[in-house]
Structure formats: structure tokens, C-alpha cells
Amino acid sequence: MFLCGGLAAAALACDRREHAATDAAAPSGPADASATADAEPAPPDDAAAAQTDAAAPSAPAAPGGATPEPSRGSSDAGSSDAGSSDAASLDGGLPGSSEGCPDDMVLVDGDYCPLVDQVCLKHHKEFVKDQARRATPYGEVEGTTSVSERCLEYKQPTVCLSKKRTPMRYCVDRYEWPNRKGELPALLVSWREAVKMCEGVGKRLCTEDEFNFACEGEEMLPYTYGYERDASKCNIDRPFRQRELTLYRYERCMRDPKCKAELERLDQRVPAGSMPACVSPFGVHDLNGNINEWVVRPGKKSPDRSGLKGGWWGPMRGRCRPTVGFHKEEDYGYEQGFRCCKDAAPR
Fold first, then answer.
1. pLDDT digits over 208-250, tens only?
2. Cβ-count burial of 118 within 10 angstroms (0-12 exposed, 13-18 middle, 19+ buried)?
3. Which band of pLDDT confidence, cut at 50, 70 and 90, is reported for residue 139?
4. In Å, what is the CA distance from 37 to each residue of 12, 27, 76, 115, 336?
5. For residue 133, how many other CB atoms are within 10 A of its CB?
């Protein structure tokens, strides 16, 4: 199916712990500090699309209705220019190091905290209003909602609740696929397609923990840029646009005038690296917002190995820790893309 048809509940209290794996729908009432993070509400009414078109996107859709060149952002996993090192020539002076990694990737090296305590001091007024609307006389919050839990400011610093941190050392693409600065990230691609495309260029899809650490750094930042939500730094909080037509996978959609026009109406991506403040402590760009990124959820079985992280351009959480886990491996959407990881060379 195209996307999960139901809306996930998004209500949580400010004070909570966030695990590496945070895939379940939120409880109906306020959570205590031991609760995991809520699932991101999906774009409403994303109906099922045909599954017979197995092609991944040949290129991200360009804004303004133009059809991008097929050679840019190719879905051909064996393409010599997909994820190529030509990105390095555009990245002079940017933060991060590629030591032990291909030139188009960034080294992530340090000690990762699996369980953190991130305390929200101020929520978006939309969330506060929705919580009040669904509150019961007993101090609980009932019912489902399409309102995402957006925190405007977190308490500093984040506290690590794990007894021991985990040493991690690996490489991650500096940008979202096709990993080229100035290009729009791919969309309408499923988790299984993302796995194959990363493998086709000698890489692999990132895990939840790898995404978390690349995004937040050892300081365990809620957002790549710090503790306060800022739509001027990353591509987040753009007005939601209701999807009105079924969308196919990218190549088929580009051949269908109605599908192509609908995608262009919905699309609010920005080119990779075009918001220079949207960079993590390790030098990885656009991990918050712009496009939801597929990750691997270790320990899960098919078709539940897929997770989405980082949020997209809409009014969603758009931060580092939460993982949306209800989208299956064959699902695809106009806000879903990915980037790749790879083991770093030994020291």
C-alpha cells in the first residue's frame, strides 16, 4: 500500500525518555518519563496505490513542473554516478571529516547514548490546543489526532539515562540520496528499493541508532542545530497540503500527467545543502526535515524492518530521535526518501 491509512495518535507529556527504537503509536493519555516517543501522524488519506510498478524514482521531481534529467539521481543501483565522489568537490570548508570514508560521506565517530531524557519546555500552540480539546476530567488525553507533537524548546542539556554509552564509528552520506549538493532528494521510493540502491553503490541503509547519532552528536541534541525549533534553519513547518490523487512510484508518476501535476503541487522539498544551518555536529546535512528517511530497525522481521526518521517539510516533529515504525517495507510516499551508510575503514 502507499501509506498507512489511519492517523497515529501524537499526544505525549513534555517529560519523557526517548529510546533508539520509538515506533509504537502514542498512548491515549499522557505518558510518564518512561514512555517511548509517539508515531508521527501520516499525511491524511494517503490511499493505496498500484504495486505493479516496481520502479524506484529515476530522479527527484523538479519544482515548477519541469521534468528532471533521468541521469540525475538515477535509481539504477549500479549507476556509476549515483552517490559519486563528485560531491566532495562541492564541499570545501564544510564541517565534518571524510577520514576513513568515501569522499561523499562523513565520518561519525564517538560514544552514543541509547536512552536519553529530553524534556520539552514549550510546545507549539497547535499541540497545546489539541491536548486541551481531548483532555478528560481525570487529567487524561483521549482519542486519536492528526496534530503532531512539535516541541519549540527543550531543557538543556539532554541527560543520558543509559549506564554505558556505545562506541560507534561509521560513514554516512553527507546529503540525502542521490547525495549531491544542490539536487532535490529522491521521493516515492520504498524501503526495499532504498536497501537495493544503497547496496548497488557499495553502501547500506542506515540503522536507527546510526541515524540518531549522526543527527544529534554526543551532546544528544533534539535538533541537529540545538535545543530550540527553528524553521529558518531546516526545511520544516511548511503548511500541509492535502493529497487529492493517488500517486504512483516516481517513474510511473512522471509518465502520468495527473500524477505528475499532483506531485508538483504537493512538493515542498529544497535542494540538498541549500540550508547551510541544517547540519549536524558531525557535518551531515538535512537530517531534520526536507524528506523522511528510511532506516533499518534491527531485530525486526519482514515486513516491519522499515522505519522513517528525521521528519519532512510539513508541520511534523522533525527532530532526531523519534522513529515512525508503522510504514511497511513496500510502502512509499511523496515525503519518503533515504540516505546510505557504510562501515568506516579501520584506524
1. 999 999 999 999 999 999 999 999 999 999 999 999 999 999 9
2. buried
3. confident
4. 8, 10, 35, 12, 20
5. 11
